[in-house]
Amino acid sequence: MPREPLDLMQGTLDVLVLRTLAWEPNHGYGISKWIRERTEGVLAVQDAALYQALRRMEKRGWIEAEWGLSDTGRRARYYSLTSEGRRRLQQEASTWRRYAAAVFKVLEPAPGEAR
Q1: 70: pLDDT confidence band, cut at 50, 70 and 90?
Q2: DSSP assignment, residue 43?
Q3: Helix, strand or coil for residue 54?
Q4: How far apart (Å, rounded) are the C-alpha atoms in residues 29 and 113?
Q5: In this structure, what are the phi and psi dihedrals at residue 78, rounded to the nearest 5 degrees?
Q6: Positive or negative CA dihedral for 43, 45, 49, 54?
Q7: Contacts of 90 (CB under 8 A, 6+ apart)
Q8: pLDDT in the model for residue 103
């Protein structure tokens, strides 16, 4: 039975979007779709939150946008990483890896502890 997608933890959306755009420039729907597919449906991004994040990251200089045509021929804003965005992605990814490693240490049974 398929599970419901998980809600994103606070602070994860920026790093997910930056990582998605490290792959290639993309529009909002494409970003959301890439994250959903990459996580096998476990993470789903809400449209309002995504577009707020995109505006915020554009103001901070992490991404830039230009108009283009989607695969369906519709006008869409395509977002791409700036050099500052690439630096930010490296920082955020490093922080998340450290955080996840620490959480996994807590979740694993201690030596001699039953699972």
Answers
A1: confident
A2: B
A3: helix
A4: 45
A5: -100, 130
A6: positive
A7: none
A8: 93
Rounded to 10°, the helix 83-107/13-23 angle is 120
Measuring CA to CA, which residue among 75, 92, 69, 102 is closest to residue 21?
92
Q: Does the domain at residues 13-107 carry the CATH identifier 1.10.10.10?
A: yes
The pTM score is 0.86
Phi, then psi, of 111 in degrees rounded to 5: -55, 130
Domain boundaries, the chain: 13-107
What is the C-alpha separation between 96 and 32, in angstroms, rounded?
20
- Dihedral sign computed on CA atoms, order 8, 12, 18, 19: negative
Q: How far is CA 78 from CA 12, 93, 100, in A?
A: 21, 23, 31
| Residue 9 CB partners (closer than 8 Å, separation 6+) | none
Strands 63-69 and 75-81: antiparallel
Please give the residue that has the higher pLDDT: either 111 or 41.
41
What does the block give as tokens for 76?
Answer: 């869409």
Tokens for 40?
A: 């096998």
